[in-house]
Structures
1.
Amino acid sequence: DKTDFGCMVGEVEAVLDDVSEDKSKVEAAKENIRKLVDLISISENNQGDGPSSMTAFGKLEYYMINNHRDNYDAYVKAGAMMN
């Protein structure tokens, strides 16, 4: 997908069975997603020779950080967005 502000976007999701009794499934899925993001991410400090530990931001977070940082910081401080 492509944003109207010029960035390409990829999304990663996990579909889980009922996790009401076993929250470890959620944590395992999050860890698998982090590993996948590390595998496909290339940052300035990492040219594919190891994990990047890059934080995966959503489209809104990315846009706010890069175009309206003061508002983003206010939302994070108010608890409306996670940092």
2.
Amino acid sequence: ETFGYEKANTEFVCSYIEQLDAFPDESFDVVVSNCVVNLSPDKAAVLREVYRVLKPGGEMYFSDIYSNKRMPKELMEMRCCGENVSLERCIGMTF
């Protein structure tokens, strides 16, 4: 879709956010992350990579989950993509 522009100027890319090696420096105006940063084991690498690929004045938009408590080991070891974890199971855990 062109969103009113003469040609498309939007591209959605699926990648690991801490490994954006396929993209050159300063190649994006905007980086959008929807609940991805919290899944990365190396959050500093996430910020370095996003900063590297953003053009000067570029912006990062993200929504994420934050906890001010350490998560239980059982929850931290769950795989997010290979296992269906219900909201009830997460809410029912004791911290």
3.
Amino acid sequence: LEYSEAQFTFDGTIYGSAFFMATGFHGAHVVIGTIFLAICLMRLYANNMTAEKHLGFEFAAWYWHFVDVVWLFLFAFVYVLPHLAYKIK
């Protein structure tokens, strides 16, 4: 919904290109992380994960931490800074 209501396009400005590229890459990483967790869930249901054998789950947790930290920076640069710059003008 947000993409269709944006006041810019992918090829209109550098900001628009950066916005769609960054949010697209972030969305792709969210899909990958969801698949990662689904595989962990399947392993859990198959009794293939124990207290000693859970490295895949740890990797999934670290991956999601990475995605979260990237989202914090992305949110700041895509949503917060443009509004601050607009208020300064």
4.
Amino acid sequence: GYFIIGLEPVFWWWELLVKRLDIMLIGLVTDSSFAADQKAKVVLYVVLSGLFLTAQIACRPFAKEYNGLADRLETRGVQGRFAS
């Protein structure tokens, strides 16, 4: 379904690899002592958010139907996470 219809054919793996990696790294920073200091955790959150925002903007992996609405919505969501 969604992995075939919702994503560009060359990015069928986007949700399975990139988004899962994003969630895993944020969870690792949150739940482990990888960064013991709270300020270091905030910096890592910003760095990770910026990295995945850059990847989203560079690849634009979602199907281009409806004038690229899915790509725009995903980019706005990642921008919101980066800004907050």
